[in-house]
Amino acid sequence: MKSAKSFSRGGIVVPYPVHHGSQSPIDNAFLPLNAYVALAQGENGQDARVVLTEGTEVREGQLIARGSGRGSVSVHSPIPGIVRRITRMRMHGGQERGVAVVSLAGSFSILGKRQERYLWKSLNKNDILHIIQEKGVVSAAHGQSLYDLFTENREAPVDALVVNMLEMDSYRRTEAEICRIRCADVADGVAISAKIMQPARVILAMDTDFSEALAQELLHILHEASLESEIMRFKRRYPQDMPALLMRAIGKRSVGTCMVLEPSALVTLHDAVVANKAHIEQYVYVGGRAVKHPAVLKARIGTPIGDLIEECGGFVGPPAKIVVNGPYSGQAADLDVPVTRTTRAILALHAEETNDAPRRACVRCGACRSACPENLDPHLIYKYIAAGRTDEAVAIGLNACIECGSCAWACWSRIPLTECFSAAKKGDSHA
Ligand code: SF4
Ligand code: SF4
């Protein structure tokens, strides 16, 4: 095992992780009465082409919309029922996207049935890629389909496949939980990815708190499958779990080109290829101090996030803020927004957890600059955007911003730097 690594500058030291009954199983969430299934994935995804008309009966896992090229991913019904409407609705972060509304009805073809296991090892690489494309497997961390990730810019070989078990905010422990509950399936996902990418090395990236026994178990299963792997430990420092920073900390010179995949993506990949199952479920951490019984739930895509909070006992008191995907880079949401294939956490935060305070003028303290892992000057970028000089903001690195949220969290004046950068990159004005 190598000594703990980290990226070279910036970032924020996070409080010790919140624990949430780590020995309990991950429960299946109740099925929603109506599932609101997004037709596009991630911030920049394109709507898939709808292949059913309103009023059509659908089975669990039946194709609703077909991906039509890079950035567009096939969408399947998460529940048996009737496609009530194809409409548009607001997602977390406020973006309006196309959705298929499916009302629960009929019988179950997957739930409660014994899963088939397909002998994927006899399939060739192209057959496996075809299945991944058909089943609409999306990496929540990348916000991209695995098919696109596996096939884009792949003239050069991948030197290392990195299994990213890092979760650097104080809340999520979902990836560690998935490893604990589905260790063999994570290993299968690594084997399937390795068959496609043929990496020279497999690296298991985990933080210094990750269970040594679990790490050794995974190492052992991979060894039995003739996949030699090594463990690398990383210091707990936000945003170490972002793929770009993880690759940087591993060191391009010593490793070369990397592909980074999370256990959640690997088990979804496993389910698609080994169990012939579309990406219709998502592991979601529901927590924050305003939630009564925080838990990791396996939820159907399209479930309103309010239903999941209700299932966790509801609110302890009024939440100051509800965010999807993390306290630093997550986006504000209301209780009606649905779970998508990029939802990893739903946090109902108590006022003491939000770091909110009245916004003031910039005092030029430099805290944002010290927090930036990309060595940018957030204060100056913000100043240019606020003055309508976006070209100059781009010239000093706006597009290199990975929207980690470290600068905004560190800002004494509570200037919404990251929101402003995100909007400016999309061509919106925000400042
Ligand atoms: S959000 Fe962008 S500018 Fe701010 S710290 Fe992260 S990378 Fe730097
Ligand atoms: S941290 Fe906030 S107040 Fe300090 S320089 Fe940056 S933008 Fe200004």
Can you characterise this structure?
It is a single chain. This protein is of the alpha/beta class and 431 residues long. Among the domains are: 2-23 and 114-275, Rossmann fold (3-Layer(aba) Sandwich); 367-425, no CATH class. It is built from 14 helices and 20 strands. A 6-stranded mixed sheet has the order 2-17-16-20-18-19, with helices on both faces. Strands 1-14-13-12-15 form a 5-stranded parallel sheet, sandwiched between helices. Strands 3-9-8-5 form a 4-stranded antiparallel sheet, with no helix packed on it. The chain is globular, with a radius of gyration of 21 Å. Bound molecules: iron/sulfur cluster (2 copies). One iron/sulfur cluster (SF4) binds at residues 371-372, 374, 376, 378, 401-407, 417-418, 421.
| Biggest sheet details | 6 strands, mixed
Helical residue percent band: 25-40%
The total of helices stands at: 14
Inertia-based shape: globular
Distance between the termini: 46 Å
What's the average pLDDT?
Answer: 90
Strand content: 15-25%
Give the uncertain stretches in residue-range form.
none
Listed once per kind, the bound small molecules are: iron/sulfur cluster
**Overall radius of gyration:** 21 Å
Biggest sheet: strands side by side, in what order?
Answer: 2-17-16-20-18-19
CATH architecture of the domain at 2-23 and 114-275: 3-Layer(aba) Sandwich
CATH top level label of the domain at 2-23 and 114-275: Alpha Beta
Specify the structural class. alpha/beta
Total number of beta strands: 20
